[in-house]
Amino acid sequence: MENFAFYNPVKILFGKGQIANIAAEIPAKAKILLTYGGGSIKTNGVYEQVKAALTGFEVLEFGGIEANPHLETLLKAVEIARSQQVDFLLAVGGGSVLDGTKFIAAAIPFEGDPWDILAKQAPVTAAVPFGAVLTLPATGSEMNTNSVVTKWETQEKLFFASPLVFPKFSVLDPETTFSLPIRQVSNGIVDAYTHVMEQYLTYPVNAPLQDRMAESILQTLIAEAPKTLANLHDYESRANVMWCATMALNGLIGVGVPQDWATHMIGHELTALHGIDHAQTLAIVLPNMLDVKRDRKRQKLLQYAERVWGLVDGTEESRIDQAIAKTRDFFESVGVKTHLSDYGVGLDVIPTIIDRFEKRGFVALGENLDVTPQVVEKVLTLCA
Ligand code: NZQ
Ligand code: ZN
């Protein structure tokens, strides 16, 4: 196992009715900016619950944060927060609202162009504290330090991470997710699954606990996905999916082990250039990334085949083939298509992505730093 430091201070309030308890987590006299997305919270009762819980606080509102949040939109919130001297943010929505709010939190005290936080990885030295009410299980943003923001003007989707943007608390009430369109439920399952794979499907470093935690999240998602999709108001299965998504990317399963993330880096380009949903891009890329990197990932692919899919018969090559096919079939079974052509995108997207990676110096991705632009081209060619 590799050395690691693990720190995660996020207080989780899990379960029905937990929105009512947020006031105790917010400093008395805080001036709050409530951030939200395109309006789902106004039609599913979440907004009313939040407002009721905030009785007595001074609350400003900023709505309209889009999926794959835009820098241009978020900067408007930064301006409001600065001029109104907001000192606490409350993000209510999916990963995009949470990620956008992390950016707002870091940008408010930032001197200079806030886009530098992402484009130049300028250090974040201060951030306004914030809490979250999560309404879409998928990203893990509710319990991690990551934020992904899109600059609309240039169609660039970049990320930053800082311990200063851990939420102070996150509410995970499965009932708030009952209003999700089926496409977003499916997306969330695929995103969480792929987060585990990015941290697990690399090479062994004798970290059996991390391996078994990762495998248990994958197995739980495989077991719960059909239940939550068959009955969109099944509290128990939605609760299980929700906790899986949080555990998949709160740092715990990734300690002391190599991590990949090349699938995500390619996926972000497909979203930036073609607007394909985040999870859809992962469903397209991951099976082919596993195929192309099968030699360096061989031991973990065989372990995955056996422990997650019960594949023990046949040659190594055929077990790996079957494990990759099972992965693809799982994504398709939850309703997420796995080919670029399913989204009307052709292979002419490849040169632009390669060019962007070369310009940004993304020339050595993956756990072995061997996912070069040539490898990315090979993977994307298989995604047709
Ligand atoms: O905007 P509203 O009206 O709220 O509608 C949203 C949005 O249209 C809707 N929605 C959310 N909760 C709902 C709901 N509709 C009905 N009922 C509810 N309860 O769902 C749509 C998608 O929301 P979004 O927040 O964009 O989805 P998701 O949570 O999948 O977030 C995706 C973003 O997170 C980033 C992605 O790149 C993408 O930008 N990621 C963030 C990560 C992180 N912070 O660690 C890691 C991930 O790998 C990912 O990159
Ligand atoms: Zn993701």
The geometry reads as: globular
User: What amount of the residues lies in strands?
Assistant: 5-15%
Q: Order the strands across the largest sheet as they lie in space.
A: 1-8-5-4-2-3
Bound molecules: 5,6-dihydroxy-NADP, zinc ion
- Our count of domains comes out at 2
The first-level CATH class of the largest domain is given as: Mainly Alpha
Number of helices: 14
CATH superfamily annotation of the largest domain:
Dehydroquinate synthase-like - alpha domain
End-to-end Cα distance: 37 Å
The main β sheet shows up as: 6 strands, parallel
* CATH fold descriptor of the largest domain: Dehydroquinate synthase-like, alpha domain
Q: In total, how many beta strands? A: 8
Order of SSEs: EEHHEHEHHEEEEHHHHHHHHH
Shape-level CATH architecture of the largest domain: Up-down Bundle
